[in-house]
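Note to self: keep these together.
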Amino acid sequence: MASLNKVMLIGNVGKDAELRYLANGTPQAKFSLAVNRNFKGADGEWKEETEWFNIVVWAALAERISQNVTKGKQIYVEGRLSTRSWDDDQGVKHYMTEVIANDLKILERREAGQGGGGGGGGGGGDEWGDGAPRAGGRPQQRTGGYNAPRGGGGAASGGGDVDVDDLPFE
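Structure:
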C-alpha cells in the first residue's frame, strides 16, 4: 500500500529563521509560518483564520535560508509533517507537530538593484531545494545548492507578483 506525507504551504514568516548547530555539527534552522484562510461565516460576513506552523530546515539548506527568511516575508514551503514527543520534568508528555521543509521559495519581489540570476534580471524571489527526487521519481529541475530565480517566460520574471499557478506543484 502506498503512502504519502507531503505538505505545501504559502504564508508569512512569523519570526526570523534561527540557525543553530547540533552537537554533531549538523545545522538546523527553525521559524514559524502564518497561513491565513478566508471564509464566509454563518452570519454571512467574511472572516479570516490564521493557522501557525513550526517549520524546521536541516543541513546545508538550513544555512542557506537562515539569513533570508525573515519576519513578514511571504514564502512557499514544501516538506513533510513530523510529530515528536517528550516528557517534561514533571513527567507530562508533550507533542509537537512540525513541517520538515525540503524546498523553500521567497515569493516577494526583489528590491531594485538586487539583480537576479538566470539571465532574466528582476525575478520573483529566491528558491532553495535539497535536490531530492520529486513525485514520479524525477529529480528536482534545480538541483542542490542555492538556486537563482528563473529568468524569462514566467509570471515571476520581470519583478511582478508570483502567480500561485506558477508554483512548482508536481
